[in-house]
Structure formats: structure tokens, C-alpha cells
Design goal:
By secondary structure, the protein is an alpha/beta fold. Strand 1 and strand 2 form a beta hairpin. The two termini are about 25 Å apart. It has eleven helices and ten strands. The protein has a six-stranded mixed sheet, with helices on both faces. Strands 4-6-8-9 form a four-stranded mixed sheet. It is globular, with a radius of gyration of 19 Å. Helix 5 crosses helix 6 and helix 9 packs antiparallel against helix 10.
Length: about 260
């Protein structure tokens, strides 16, 4: 079904693997379309409760496809960037958690794809960067906006303006990734993390993701109002009934799919 990615579901986890190892998994229009299609499968499949995004071979995603981009004029560039934003925003809008398993180079669009995910786990061999200014452009798949929200305005300007590539430990130190693990532990760590999240109330997980994302840029008063409404919605859910009943009965909660 897919030509540039692999998508499979195992034990409730959806795996989206960018599969262009000879091109270091570079993002072009076709890859973006296929990631979007896989995300639609995730959203519409109640059996999928969490997603792991990774890359085949030595790279997560080494950037956008420069050979393709070099052929584009301003109109073509705008079309490609709009497609990239559509994918990254879609990942953020889906209530199920997305975990980026960053196995190697996450540069340019690859760094931006990782940042669109909810949680980032990096291999010790992972490298991160936004090298677009070396090419006479700027990050275009959300990098100028998501990076400062993760690492702060000053650090984001430093990384974007210098095009410096940083290792996994530095990415962890500045808050770009949540954890660094040995290469052979990357997927198992992400699977264990996904399983932990999947054991929680699925309605609450989805509402939490949406509330965090939607409230992040609001002032505290407006964000608090958003939280009140979100909390109220969970209070009337079957998850709340099962979770609290299980707690009082001193047993493990058995949550259902949405």
C-alpha cells in the first residue's frame, strides 16, 4: 500500500517507519502524503492506542528532499511547506500519543517531525539540527515555532541561526528530547513507554494531550478555563467511573477503547 513508509499495528501500537534509507529517509511530497494517510489510519482505528514514529536504517529523517526542493519556485515551495504543516498539525491534533524513536539523524524536516510528536526518545547515536540557513531558507515544517516552545527562544535562535548539529545528550539537556538510550534499547524503550500510556484511561489521555496543546499559548486565566472544561468532560466519562471504582475496590482498572 505504501511506497515510502512502512505502517503496521502490533498489540495496540501503530508503527510508522519512514522507509527511504538510501535517501536517508528525506521527506518529499510523496512521503508526506503517506505519513498523512498512515495518521488517518491511526485516527480511525480504535485498536490503535499509541504510535511510534521512526526511520529505517541509520537516519530518523535527515531532512527534506533537497533535490526536489531545488526544482521548486516560490509557488511550489509554498505548496510543499503547506503539505508539511498539514502533516505536523495532524499529528498534534490526533488525541492518541505519538512517540518519536529518533534512531539517527533528525535534521531539518526530521527534527520538525520529531517535535510534532508528543514525546521524543533518542538513541545515543541520534543527531539533531535545523540546517536550513545553509541552504538559503529557514525551517518550514514548524521549526521556527515548535523549537522555541521546547527549548526556549534564545536556544532556538542559536540552533537555527548557526545550523549547529547537536548530539542526543545535548538535545536532552536543553529539553528537545525526554530520554536518551542505547541504540538497541530504543524501540523496546518506546514500546514500554507506549504500553505504560496505553494502560491508562484512553479518554483522559486524549483530553490531556489536547488540553496541553491548546492551552500552551494562552494566558493563565484562559488556560485555566480551558482546563476546567476539559476536566469536566472527563468527569462524565466511562473512564472516570471505571478508574475511581477500581481504585476504591483496590483492583487494577480495566479501561476500554474509546
Amino acid at each position: 500500500m505504501y511506497e515510502t513508509i512502512k505502517y503496521e499495528v502490533k498489540e495496540g501500537i501503530g508503527y510508522i517507519t519512514i522507509n527511504r534509507p538510501k535517501a536517508m529517509n528525506a521527506l518529499n511530497g510523496e512521503v508526506l502524503d503517506e505519513i498523512y494517510a498512515a495518521c488517518a489510519e491511526v485516527q480511525n482505528d480504535d485498536a490503535v492506542k499509541a504510535v511510534i514514529v521512526t526511520g529505517e536504517g541509520k537516519a530518523f529523517v535527515a531532512g527534506a528532499d533537497i533535490a526536489q526542493m531545488n526544482q521548486l519556485d516560490s509557488i511550489g515551495g509554498r505548496t510543499l511547506i503547506a503539505k508539511g504543516h498539514k502533516v505536523m498539525n495532524y499529528i498534534e491534533s490526533i488525541e492518541k500519543p505519538f512517540i518519536a524513536a529518533v534512531n539517527g539523524f533528525a535534521l531539518g524536516g526530521g527534527c520538525e517531525l520529531a517535535m510534532a510528536c508528543d514525546i521524543r526518545i533518542a538513541s545515543e547515536k541520534a543527531k539533531f539540527g535545523q540546517p536550513e540557513v545553509n541552504l538559503g531558507i529557514i525551517p518550514g515544517f514548524g521549526g521556527t515555532q515548535r523549537l522555541p516552545r521546547l527549548v526556549g527562544k534564545g536556544m532556538a535562535k542559536y540552533l537555527i541561526m548557526t545550523a549547529e548539529m547537536i548530539g542526543a545528550e545535548e538535545a536532552n539537556r536543553i529539553g528537545l528530547v525526554e530520554k536518551v538510550v542505547a541504540p538497541d534499547e530504543l524501540i523496546p524503550t518506546c514500546e514500554k513507554l507506549a504500553q505504560t500510556i496505553m494502560s491508562k484511561a484512553p479518554i483522559a489521555i486524549g483530553v490531556a494531550k489536547t488540553t496541553i496543546n491548546n492551552g500552551y499559548d494562552l494566558d493563565m486565566r484562559a488556560a485555566s478555563t480551558l482546563e476546567v472544561e476539559a476536566f469536566t468532560s472527563t468527569f462524565g466519562s466511562k473512564d472516570k467511573t471505571e478508574g475511581m471504582t477500581a481504585f476504591l475496590e483496590k483492583r487494577e482498572a480495566k479501561f476500554e477503547n474509546k
